[in-house]
Amino acid sequence: MAFSYFCPHCGKHFDAPGICPLCQVSLLPHPQQATSENRYCTRCGARISMKEQLFCTSCGAPLSDRVPQQSYGIPPQKKKFPVWGMVGIVLGSVLILIFVVLVLLFGFGILSSERSATHPNQWYQDNGGYSDSQDEPNGLVHTNAKILITSLTYGTGEDLGFLLMDGQFVEVGLNIINTQDRTITLSSSNFYLTEDATGEKIYPYSEMGSEKTSIQIEANEAVAGALSFEIRPDAAYHFNFIETDGTLISSFALSK
Q1: Which residue, among 239, 246, 186, 195, has the nearest Cα to 216 in the 3D structure?
Q2: In this structure, which CATH number among 3.40.50.2000, 1.10.275.10, 2.60.40.1240, 3.30.450.40 belongs to the domain 146-253?
Q3: Alpha-carbon distances, residue 148 vs 27, 34, 96, 129, 157 (angstroms)
Q4: Could you give the CA distance from residue 112 to residue 121 in angstroms, rounded to a whole number?
Q5: Secondary structure (DSSP) of the chain
């Protein structure tokens, strides 16, 4: 059966004029059925009265003898970013942050190790303990020096080359470290022995009562030297270091 009419909205074909039951739009005759005297608008179905008319006077649509065809184009789809992609970006950012932190910590560790190698902060003595000066608010009074006993030598004055040849002495070898960024000055009065039994203080020995030269230590440097003390051979002693204001900083038991 040949269909003579169609719906301009959905494109369905019918064999009689009327209204499309689905779209409720007036049916139009097929182009091959229309004549120059009987033309219709394919959009609104209005009759075209003029032969050379190019646009519909009712809806303004361009006139065409072609039957409209329904388009079945694929609708555009929104691109979804995969969840695993987001997780990868987050993990990558975290790993980069951890790497940067490790590099910074490694750099600070190298600087710290270089500084501690140049300016040690722990000093031990074989028969004593740990020497560490205490921080005080008055930096001009406290030197914050650190003391290391490197050797103990017992003998007579003759053994050590003193005029008091028959006296009994102990010579204490020292390393004195300046931990500050300024020059510090120490004197023999910063060091003394105490007899364990009596608490008697014994200051460094000097020939004929002469005053010993002050010890100056440049910033962040160390000096080595020795102090001698006259002792009793049967007594036990502690070696002490005090600050210039009398604060006791470290005390080491001397062994034989």
Answers
A1: 186
A2: 2.60.40.1240
A3: 113, 119, 45, 10, 24
A4: 12
A5: ----EE-TTT--EESS-SB-TTT--B-EE-TTT-BTTBEE-TTT-PEE--TT--B-TTT-PBP-SSPP----PPPP-PPPPPHHHHHHHHHHHHHHHHHHHHHHHHHHHHHHHHHHHHS----B-TTS-B--PPP-S-TTT----EEEEEEEEEEEHHHHT-S-TTSEEEEEEEEEE--SSS-EEE-GGGEEEEETTT--EEPPP-GGGPPPPPEEE-TT-EEEEEEEEE--TT--EEEEEE-TTS-EEEEEE---
Could you give the count of Cα atoms lying within 13 Å of 84 in the half-sphere of its Cβ?
Answer: 0
Paired sense of beta strands 5-6 and 28-29, if any:
antiparallel
Q: Where are the domains of the chain?
A: 1-65, 146-253
Question: The whole model's pTM is what?
Answer: 0.46
* pLDDT mean for each 10 residues of the chain (256 residues): 70 79 79 58 72 69 58 56 71 88 74 42 32 41 86 92 90 92 89 95 83 82 92 94 89 87
Strands 5-6 and 47-48: unpaired
Distance CA 98, CA 102 (A): 6
Check if the beta carbon of residue 228 is closer than 8 Å to that of residue 112.
no
How far apart CA 251 and CA 242 sit, in angstroms, is 9
Cα(117)–Cα(110) distance, integer angstroms: 10
